[in-house]
Design a protein that fits this description.
This protein has 3 helices and 8 strands, in the order αβαββββββαβ. With 128 residues, the protein is an alpha+beta fold. It folds into 2 domains: 3-61, Ribosomal Protein S8, Chain: A, domain 1 (2-Layer Sandwich), CATH 3.30.1370.30; 73-127, Dna Ligase, domain 1 (2-Layer Sandwich), CATH 3.30.1490. This is Small ribosomal subunit protein uS8c.
């Protein structure tokens, strides 16, 4: 099962129905993506919750003003089709208004961080 797609879909659906929290399976990848979303100001908080032997991440969503459009997440690299980019050709989402989350050899980071460190990687998703 694609945990990244599950995370993105859960957040997207929660925004559609105006839910305040989202619960997803705790994986290191989901935690790192959540950390980036928190750092960039797309979500309010993250916490870990244990239910028996299972661990979950609880994302508290951040809502903007009513008239503004909510955040959009789009999965780019999929299990059946991986999309890679080197740092000079790293895509800019909406001309720099959004972010691309990239999995590199040095961990999961934003496209800006990858360009700054001059490393490429797999483009996981776009957020704007």
């Amino acid at each position: 099962m694609d945990t990244i797609a599950n995370l993105i879909t859960s957040i997207r659906n929660a925004y559609i129905v105006d839910k305040k929290i989202v619960r997803v399976t705790a994986t290191r990848t989901n935690e790192n993506i959540g950390r980036i979303l928190l750092q960039e100001g797309f979500i309010k908080s993250i916490r870990e919750h244990k239910d028996g032997q299972k661990s979950f991440l609880i994302f508290t969503l951040k809502y903007r003003k009513k008239k503004e459009k909510r955040i959009t997440l789009k999965r780019i690299s999929k299990p059946g089709r991986k999309i890679y980019s080197d740092f000079p050709n790293m895509p800019k989402v909406l001309g720099g208004m959004g972010i691309a989350i990239v999995s590199t050899s040095r961990g999961i980071m934003t496209d800006r961080e990858a360009r700054q460190k001059k490393i490429g990687g797999e483009i996981l998703c776009y957020v704007w």
